[in-house]
């Protein structure tokens, strides 16, 4: 009986010591610049999203479809809407974040007029309808701008490993479609290849 009691006391003491050590440990958080490139796992990250969106939007506007539209419509900018961007990889990728990066680059380059998405338009219509009933300064209903082109695409990946190193290969494919003719006027592709050494990850 005494032996069991001693074991119980020792067990409780060990638990108290473990809790004390745990309480003494701390988590260190280091703030870094949002533009700093950090690859912890080799997975798709914010840097990939920002760089791919910027490079592909810039490239897309140098192709003939843009110059042809500008020549036919003089000072009118092409109206572009973003459709779906599908995640065809096996990992979780926030396509919403990537779409927002595409939107930002489309708007900020100043060469096109960005048309709000279907969900955004429905929200705006609902707000205008509410203002019409409840506000003296309600915005008038105007004819909405229809998109001339739609940008859509997908993200694919290939994974390979030899036991020592891992290879992650991403391929982003975007295309621009003429909304009137349904013709694809531009197809772009961006590839990202990452090699992750064994010392950089846990198996």
Structural summary, described in words:
This protein is of the alpha/beta class. The protein has a single domain, classed as 3-Layer(aba) Sandwich (Rossmann fold). Helices cover 39% and strands 26% of the residues. It has five helices and five strands. Strands 2-1-3-4-5 form a five-stranded mixed beta sheet, with helices on one face. The protein starts with a helix and ends in a 6-residue tail after the last strand.
Structural class: alpha/beta
Mean pLDDT: 81
Strand content: 25-35%
> How many structural domains in the coordinates?
1
Unreliable runs:
none
Total E-strand runs: 5
Radius of gyration (Å): 27 Å
Q: Please provide the ordered H/E string of secondary-structure elements.
A: HHHEHEHEEE
CATH superfamily: ABC-type transport auxiliary lipoprotein component
For the largest beta sheet, what order do the strands appear in spatially? Answer: 2-1-3-4-5
CATH architecture field: 3-Layer(aba) Sandwich
- Total number of helical segments? 5
In one word, what is the shape?
Answer: extended
| Top CATH class | Alpha Beta
SSE blueprint and pairings:
Layout: H1 2-24, H2 46-60, H3 64-73, E1 79-87, H4 95-108, E2 113-114, H5 118-134, E3 149-161, E4 165-178, E5 184-197
Parallel strand pairs: 1-2, 1-3
Antiparallel strand pairs: 3-4, 4-5
Helix pairs in contact: 2-4
Tags for this entry?
203 residues, extended, alpha/beta, Rossmann fold, 5 helices, 5-stranded mixed sheet, 26% strand
